[in-house]
Amino acid sequence: MTPFIATNAVLTDTPQPIATQQATAQLARIAQSNSAPWLYSALYQLRDVESNGRMIPGIGDLRVEESTASKARLFFSLVTIEDLPVPSVTVVSGGGVSVVWSMGDREVKLACYPDGQAMVFRCENDEIVEPRDVDFTNLSSAGEPLQWLVRQNR
After folding, report:
1. How far is CA 127 from each of CA 2, 28, 51, 91, 122, rounded to the nearest angstrom?
2. Secondary structure of the chain: what % helix, strand, coil (to 5)?
3. What confidence category does residue 2 fall into, taking pLDDT thresholds of 50, 70 and 90?
4. What is the distance of C-alpha 4 from the center of its chain?
5. What is the predicted pLDDT for the residue at 14?
6. Scanning 6, 26, 43, 105, which has the fewest C-beta atoms within 10 Å of its C-beta?
7. Opening angle at CA 78, ends 129 and 85, nearest 5
8. Are 49 and 64 in contact (CB under 8 A)?
């Protein structure tokens, strides 16, 4: 993946609406500033996997539904950390989305599934340290694994 560097970044296409107006406003504010280039790249990659997904014989269904992508966008809107590394956004067979932030030997993986479930995994040395369901009702805990990632690498 080519590294993404953004300054004064603005999305040309506004992302589809996510769960709440407050979350939508926060996502738009961050995406239109140069303070969080990881977010601009993540939204761009997510839009790309949404529009390029297709059914591939022998591999599976790589189409991402809007509701699945909206879960990922909702998670992005809950993250208040601006200095994250640029994540890798990929489609998972069956129509899921995987987002991976890496720093050294630590990773945080977000998985959003077509059934509405979202999980986040803290990984260290390629092993899952802590899997957990994303609790979208507890806004302060959603970005906690990413805080762990940044805190461990400072």
Report:
1. 25, 34, 31, 21, 9
2. 35, 25, 40
3. very low
4. 15
5. 41
6. 105
7. 60
8. yes
The strand ranges marked E within the chain are 55-56, 60-61, 88-92, 96-103, 106-112, 118-124, 127-133
The maximal CA–CA distance of the chain, rounded, in angstroms, is: 44
Structure token digits, residue 132: 């957990």
Higher pLDDT, 33 or 58: 58
Confidence (pTM):
0.74
Q: What is the DSSP letter of 143?
A: T
Write down the pLDDT at residue 107. Answer: 94
Q: Backbone phi, then psi, for 79, in 5-degree steps? A: -85, 125
Contact 18, 24 (CB under 8 A): yes
Question: CA neighbours within 13 Å on the CB side: how many for 56?
Answer: 12
Tokens 């993540």 — which residue?
A: 42
